[in-house]
Amino acid sequence: MLYIIAVLTAIIAYLIGSVSGAILISRTVDGNDIRTKGSKNAGTTNMLRIYGKKAAVFTLLIDVLKGVAAVLIGIAVDYFTMKYMTGSFLSGNIKYIASIFVVLGHDFPIYFGFKGGKGVATGLGAVLMLDYKVALIVLAAALLIMVVTRYVSLGSVAAAVIYPCVAAAFMAGSGEFNVVYLISALLLGVLIIAKHHTNIKRLLDGTENKLFGKKG
To answer: What is the total count of domains within the chain?
Structure first.
């Protein structure tokens, strides 16, 4: 029964993640799909460059809230399973599964041909609900890198690398090691890095666009 609940929660998280704020807003504004413009990514940075600050802020809020909502559902399910269904490694860990599947939904949305964004904002929302202290450290590091370099992609990739490290450090500090949490953190980092593969190539080539800068 617990496995069925875990699968259902993962499906719900995926469906929540599949709601693309960038695509919906761009279609509402001018009838076009953000995936045909700029970097062709359905994310906050591309929305900022194409549609401006207001559209970018709404996109960011929607994407973050998707992560928050999916993990909140996972937390509620964990509360129920820990009370009535103990004895499985899934008990208390379904929220971590939800965090992965909501990002998968954002990256590969079923409603929009499986072509979505890169999962950074949605991942942030999920991590905030899992452990806000870890999230704030990762966010601060990412923002610092973005401000200094003006490369949003570099800050995003750095966050993907830093997140599992910070999560592991917190677990080591508390003396409570959770293998499911660590695996989910690693998977989330890998997902975000994989979705940034073209950005990484451009960073290495020196042709990546800077925030508020001229296109390379």
So the answer is: 1
Structural domain contains residue 216: no
Cβ atoms of 151 and 211 within 8 Å: the answer is yes
Spans of the chain below 70 pLDDT: 212-216
Q: What residue numbers bound the domain in which 92 lies?
A: 2-205
Assigned token pair, 8: 């259902």
Q: Cβ atoms within 10 A of the Cβ of 151, count?
A: 20
* Dihedral angle sign, alpha carbons of residues 77, 82, 83, 87: positive
Strand extents, DSSP E, 70-143: none
What contacts 36, CB < 8 A, 6 or more positions away?
Answer: none
Q: 137 is written with which tokens?
A: 């450290």
Question: In this structure, are residues 44 and 56 in contact, taking their beta carbons and an 8 Å threshold?
Answer: yes
Q: For residue 210, is it within any domain?
A: no
CA 15 to CA 182: how far, in whole Å? 24
Q: Is the CA virtual torsion 152, 155, 161, 162 positive or negative?
A: negative
In a domain, 106, yes or no: yes
What the block records as the tokens of 11 is 């499906």
- Distance, CA of 152 to CA of 183 (rounded, Å): 25
